[in-house]
Design goal:
Elements lengths: L12 H20 L3 H7 L2 E4 L4 E7 L23 E7 L1 E10 H6 L4 H28 L11 H4 L4 E2 L2 E2 L9 E4 L3 H16 L10 E4 L1 H11 L19 E3 L2 E5 L8 E4 L4 E13 L10 E14 L6 E4 L3
Parallel strand pairs: 1-12, 7-14, 8-10
Antiparallel strand pairs: 2-3, 4-13, 5-6, 8-11, 9-10, 11-14, 12-13
């Protein structure tokens, strides 16, 4: 790489590159295990080798073209067109790691000094991108180029390229609730076993809410409170309770009054195989005495069966 700052370099670029490369071995695990939402979604991470978008089929009707027959009865050989496709576009996320010339000079004299400050800046950027991803995956955000989020997924409007208002099979169950102390558990039960279930099986596997509602749920568990070691493992540092044997936990950015019932059998966090929390080389702008590397992530949240999720809103 060419020398920055008009050819005057104070720190060997190889030192910076080597330090980032060493840190990369732990960065991916650190980010995906940094909060409960990312930890849950990373269990269903799907690595895809690029492409323009992610396309999934939607089953819009129940097939009813077969039947029973005897001997030489004529069999029906026509099947209805019962599948639509939904498209999910990739989105990109980044976080800069910047070192100024002043910082280089303040930490000059030994490689270990600049490596120490680089480690601190990289850890800060790592925490920042984990927080950014959690926020974008939890609830709708204003602005362009944001990820699809779990709250929008558990709704009835558009998600991906298809709107639930035009394809009824592409709708989650959305229920207006109320005081959790009086109807919270009954609403959870109804949504779990009647609204978002396929018969008595294939129910939501995780319940995600905010800290306020989590505390209200916890109060209903007393004095029979049990800390669960379910799939969103408490031994990884996240406290979660259980409902019908499935983990109930809270995220930092779930909207007020919201609880989501998620069936992880139908949720994927797609990531680009070449852009899964990678770090670029350090580069220097022509008009600044800084060097900047970037943490890059390319991915998208998607579901293949929106009907198997639910949302309770207006919880108090």
């Amino acid at each position: 790489m060419g020398a920055p700052f008009g050819g005057i370099t104070t720190v060997d670029s190889v030192v910076l590159a080597t330090s980032l490369a060493d840190y990369k071995s732990t960065m991916t695990d650190n980010v995906y295990q940094s909060n409960a939402v990312l930890q849950m979604l990373s269990q269903n991470k799907e690595v895809i080798d690029g492409g323009l978008s992610i396309v999934q089929p939607i089953m819009t009707i129940k097939s009813n073209d077969g039947g029973f027959y005897l001997g030489a009865d004529v069999l029906n050989n026509v099947q209805q067109n019962f599948a639509n496709n939904v498209e999910f576009l990739w989105q990109n996320c980044y976080e800069p790691i910047q070192i100024t010339r002043d910082e280089e000079r303040q930490n000059s004299g030994a490689d270990h000094k600049i490596m120490a400050i680089l480690a601190t800046k990289t850890m800060s950027a790592e925490k920042a991108i984990a927080d950014r991803l959690e926020q974008a995956l939890s609830a709708p955000l204003a602005g362009a180029n944001n990820l699809l989020d779990l709250q929008t997924m558990c709704d009835t409007g558009s998600f991906g390229s298809v709107s639930g208002s035009t394809v009824s099979a592409w709708q989650a169950t959305k229920t207006t609730s109320g005081a959790f102390s009086t109807q919270g558990l009954s609403d959870m039960t109804t949504a779990t076993y009647l609204s978002a279930a396929s018969g008595s099986v294939d129910n939501p596997t995780h319940y995600l809410t905010n800290k306020t509602i989590f505390q209200k749920f916890e109060q209903t568990r007393l004095p029979l409170e049990r800390i669960s070691n379910g799939t969103t493992s408490a031994n990884a540092g996240f406290t979660n309770l259980s409902f019908k044997g499935k983990p109930v936990f809270f995220g930092n950015y779930v909207a007020s009054g919201i609880m989501l019932g998620l069936n992880m059998n139908y949720i994927k966090l797609a990531v680009d195989s070449a852009t899964d929390l990678i770090t670029t080389e350090f580069m220097s702008p022509i008009n600044q005495t800084v060097r900047v590397a970037y943490i890059l992530w390319r991915g998208q949240l998607y579901t293949s069966n929106r009907r198997r999720h639910f949302q309770l809103n207006s919880i108090t």
